[in-house]
Amino acid sequence: MRTGTVARVTAAGPDVAAAEPEGAPGRSRDFVQSLERGLAIIRVFSADTPSLTVTEIAARTGLTRAAARRFLLTLIDLGYVATDGRYYELTPRVLELGYSYLSALSFPEVALPHLERLVTEVEEASEGSILDGGDVVYVVRVPGPALMTISVNVGARMPAYATAMGRVLLAGLPDDALERYLQHVEMTALQPRTITDPAALRTELLRVRDDGYAMVDQELEEGLIAVAAPVYDRSDRVVAAVNLSTHVGRRSAQDMRDLVPALQRTAEQIRTGLSGSVRRSVGPRV
Hints:
The chain is α+β, with helices and mostly antiparallel strands. It is built from ten helices and ten strands. The chain has two domains: 1-100, Winged helix-like DNA-binding domain superfamily/Winged helix DNA-binding domain (Arc Repressor Mutant, subunit A, Orthogonal Bundle), CATH 1.10.10.10; 104-275, 2-Layer Sandwich (Beta-Lactamase). Strands 1, 5, 6, 7, 8, 9 and 10 form a seven-stranded antiparallel beta sheet that branches. It has a three-stranded antiparallel beta sheet with strand order 2-4-3.
């Protein structure tokens, strides 16, 4: 029986910026603002806020209460939202929005059995992710025997700069894309050890390129330590990342480095599986 999980669509993101006015710089003349606002309504729901009032939704999306209500009523008619008269929540039908993408996403299903074998071997949790903008999105996960304080579920997003998998994926970007990221990224000190200086992050990412792996020691959460390795496609492009994560009470930084060869072998096995798949793999979107 498989113990891991693979990608399912989630409506993540508790904070949705207000929609830009029509004709805003960078917007195509064909840009449909009403579609943007409808999607903003869907994205405002999260694991922390599964049910919201129309007033809360309006505040989080930057819409007026009347506009938010109209969009909600439309989504109710389409079957994507349900309400008890006061609170609104998503319905399982939102899963359809990502079905076509996920049905062609070979990485999670190829990676899962390999990560399961790795977890059995090293007895630590393992995840796989892809890069989406400035975040890593977890698309496959196999829990380890130890309970972790951090809540990482399939579909979760984490800032790439503060995660081992994120750094592997950033290091795999072309130079111009990496420079754009470094010029625009906003880095918050999530923990005292978190790298928040773009120049220091660039130095670290160049080291990751050379070493072929990344390690983050208590930069995302106190006590959490992880190592990550890149997953390449047949063109030697980094398309995903896999990791091993644990608590510092279980393993030291050197202990985790000792697991890197096993992690890299697993990444290579996943690459072989992706290369043999007739379905497309995934790549970073920045």
